[in-house]
Amino acid sequence: MAEHTKAIRFGIMGCAKAATKVSRAIKMSPNSTLYAIASRSLEKAQQFATENGYSDQQVVIYGSYSELLDDPLVDAVYMPLPTSLHLEWAVLAAKKHLLLEKPTALDATQLDRILEACRSNGVQFMDGSMWYHHPRTAKMKELLSDSKLFGQVKSIYSSSSYVGGQGFLENNVRIKADLDSLGALGDAGWYCVGGILWAMNNNLPTTVTALPSVVRNSDGVLLSCTASLHWEKEEIVATFFCSFLAHETMDLTISGSNGTLHLEDFIIPYEETSASFKYTSGAKFVDMHIGWNVKPEEVQVDTGELPQEARMVQELSRLIQGIKYSGRLPDQKWAEVSRVTQLVIDTVIRSINYGFEPVYIY
After folding, report:
1. pTM across the whole model
2. Which of 127, 162, 165, 262 has the most CB atoms in a 10 Å sphere around its CB?
3. Distance separating the N- and C-terminal Cα atoms of the chain
4. Structurally, what CATH architecture does the domain formed by 3-129+308-331 represent?
């Protein structure tokens, strides 16, 4: 079979702002192609196509989501719909391979129904957390796995915040209870929790405790919150802060028994073509505590020709090609990554509802 016939044909279901970046990533990925765009109306789909430079000859335009799902030439669906719509449409879409924007669902019960639909139809699932796919992430994992340089994980801190502005806080989908009721926790907090769990090899904590510094809007949606995660047996604590009200942060700091890793742009690198992180190993104070014996070392990682979003699409397309052309089974790793993240998000909410008490996770 000719190589070009193996390109995975993507359909975009919903023309949210995130779809602009992912449509570019689909075009950049060497093993995928943007085949179709669907919105709730033909006019909206055509407007998105025009604004992003896609002609009718390049992509098929649909005025409903159902039309896209009925098209047998669509291999995979990218779905950036509001979270409240994920359960309905992701289950319907699960005869196609699925790239689902985060947060994946309103709770783990809903996500389990989506994942079961994907499993029963033998299709690949992945959420849209692009940072996992950056080559920097693999390089950081390599360092964390070096017991001499880093030792054992002891504590983790993560933050994801930005100032939404008045227009955002009044009109954005992410602050509407009927559309994205998880608010900052589901949006920015998803990355924080994902980064922490990544550092812990996706092992769930024993307990989760939300801190009282919670801010909600008049709709009851979380605009800012902080929580801690505790692994009792390992005696490890992680904390995270997520907010629509604080200056831009994307921090991840992992402290071990012999080293520390730190970066300030773990979700979206400062530059698309390269990214870096700093680590310190074996640091001690010099005599009289007037300085350190070592300074942090900076590791630079080139992105190459593909930014992290395109690498995400490339990896998903590679998995789909294996299923479609080589009879392989879907890789359940990405479903599990999403599920443990969703479980922690759920438990933070329970802790808030229980008066900021520690809640055992299950």
Report:
1. 0.96
2. 127
3. 46
4. 3-Layer(aba) Sandwich (3.40)
